[in-house]
Amino acid sequence: MADQSIVGALVLGLIEGLTEFIPVSSTAHVLLAGHFMGFRSPGNTFAVLIQLGAILAILLVYFQKLLQIALALPHSTQARRFVLTVLLAFLPAAIIGALAHDFIKSVLFETPMLICVMLIVGGFILLTVDKMSLRPRYTDITQYPAGLAFKIGLFQCLAMIPGTSRSGATIVGALLMGTDKRSAAEFSFFLAMPTMLGAFVLDLYKNRNALSFDDAGIIAIGFVAAFVTALLVVRSLLDFVSSRGFAPFAYWRILVGTAGLIGLLVFG
Q: What is the pLDDT of residue 213?
């Protein structure tokens, strides 16, 4: 990555931060943009490592709430129960991600056509679910049953196919199982913390020999850009979803996926 463009790293970092927590697939956007910009990294490690900026952004936004939960753990059954539900939801992705990591990175991440198709398919699914007249039974993430959390975690595993979207898969799964839109998006935030951190650590370990000190500058640029833009998105997304729903993201997915397919067919 040492010879990569600083501008390219900045652009990809901005894309990562803007798209990580909305249901449009940040991985798809970063990989497609990198493909057409000619930006390459060993094992597509750059796309995963700059996610640390987005992780820190959500930790900062939810720092006070996380601190309250941590302080309440010794004496609050509700706090312990909530942490358990998040970890339970994280478990399927942790197991499958560890077992299928090499296949995901070497095959799925290297297939731009698949990414574009999944963007379009996911867009139509999100649009359909957003327009369904679903009656929510769960509106408070701290009251999600363990079984519901685990099922949402199973939906999250679909996001291992680039273009599906981690947040999109978890939100769709949550909505279909009786949550409201705002709490579905918020639970996706909390589930992102262990999931993204786990992916970051695993990818860093797997590619430790492929990285060099010269890569640090490029990664740092992408990291800072992702952090700043993700901070803005996380602070505004819940209110946006509550008033507008997920249809705008669905249309955007279809637009980007279609444009990507046309670009691949024309330019290769």
A: 62
